[in-house]
Amino acid sequence: MKLISRIFLFTFLTVLILSCNMGGNEGRNVESLIQRLDRASNSQKDSIFQALDRSMLLQKDLPTLYAGIRLNYPDDSLRERSSKARLIGLLESVNDESTPAFLKEQFMLWETNYFMKRTALQTLCNINTEGSLAAFIELLLLDPKNMAAYADHFFTPIITEPAHSSVLFPAALALVEKSSYCFPVLECLRVGLEEGDILPEVIKDDLLPIREVYRAQRKRRDRYAPGSRSYMLANTLMATSMKCLSYFPAESSTQQVIALASEDNDIEVRLFALLIRLHGDTTGCRQDLHELAGDFRYRNRLYEVLKEAELEQHFPAEFLTQQAFAEGDLAGWLKMPEHRASYPEGISLIRRFSHQTADDQQESNFYLFKFTYGKGWQIGLSGPQPLDTTDFAIAGYMTGSKYLAEDAREEDGHVAELIEED
């Protein structure tokens, strides 16, 4: 019995001594690692970090790690393979409440070292505590210009990460006021809501910034020429903000924005608002649907948008005809920048006729129209369309015009010239 007790005591003391030795050496091991980095080659550094057992790092090693990160190294220009970047990465394995404050301090000291700033932000997100994520947002707000270059390809993946999104929103909504982050934040929110990574209740009480984005971008857009890059970007932001708000149909912010969008001069904005409304109470949409379908400028685009959204059943049956879409095709062709770049004031049917082109195996329908821009009538063609008039196509490849006056030819002469094939 005494022998067993002595063996047990010897074993216990041995384990205790070994444990104490391991804990006592840990700080010196981190310090030794930092010293070795200063004189190691790049390949040697790879081996050092590969061999490092991160599970052995302890919070009491943090002061040594912080001191190492504050140093300058000859390889600082090597980005992700630099000693400093690798040491920052160790903070994902060992950290405490002081780590966010330390990384914030270093972030501001690095000034134009954008890669190191990005590394610090990535580390804060990967630490994934309330304090580290709050520091992440705070740094973006403090330094938006320096981080603008990383907004799309760096910020978006982080904020849509399910582990981060519920904490980052609604705090991240403050960033929509910064032009560099407006689209990434809204796009992250849209994707997160669509994929279920962000629950609507997370941001339900913070919708005002999204509404203000819509209003601000609408004012900004109207300063630019339709079709310009700045105009299209503003429209994209307006559409994205509407999409985010659409998850809260009963909220006043959503209703205000949809009401504004439904009266917008831009057809794409109006159509986007209409789609959102059609997913709710459709009774108020009938008048708008009838108005848009009855206008040759918007008819075909309305049908395309509804079909893409699998809502084509809402297209007014009155305008679901081959002739109506043929008319819309010619209007769209004339609106193209390389043609007349504007819609005609009026289009009128002259006649429908059948013809078999060299490329087709059977006859197709064509429509001969006249159109006007206010001074006289010119002739245009739309087609081909299916021979069965209950069927229809959009964007017939022979649609177009040679801008001949109506009285320049007899009808058959216009047909012969427009249907002429090379």
Which structural traits does this protein have?
alpha+beta, single chain, 20 helices, 4 strands, 422 residues
Summarize the structure.
The chain has 422 residues and is an alpha+beta fold. The protein contains 20 helices and four strands.
Give an overview of the whole structure:
By secondary structure, the protein is of the alpha+beta class. Among the domains are: 55-206; 322-419. It has 20 helices and four strands. The chain has helices at residues 2-39, 42-51, 62-70, 83-90, 99-109, 114-127, 130-142, 144-147, 151-159, 162-168, 179-195, 200-203, 208-221, 229-245, 252-262, 267-278, 286-293, 299-308, 322-335, 411-419; strands at residues 346-355, 364-372, 377-385, 400-405. Strands 1-2-3-4 form a four-stranded antiparallel sheet, sandwiched between helices. A hairpin with an 8-residue loop joins strand 1 (346-355) and strand 2 (364-372). Helix 15 (252-262) packs across helix 16. The radius of gyration is 33 Å and the shape is elongated. It starts with a helix and ends with a helix.
**How many β-strands, per DSSP?**
4
Largest sheet report? 4 strands, antiparallel
Helix fraction bin:
55-70%
Structural class: alpha+beta
Give the strand order of the largest sheet, numbering strands 1, 2, ... along the chain.
Answer: 1-2-3-4
So how many helices? Answer: 20
Strand-residue proportion:
5-15%
Order of helices and strands: HHHHHHHHHHHHHHHHHHHEEEEH
User: What would you call the shape?
Assistant: elongated
Uncertain runs: 6-27
User: What is the CA-atom radius of gyration, in angstroms?
Assistant: 33 Å
Q: Mean pLDDT, as a whole number?
A: 82
What is the end-to-end distance? 110 Å
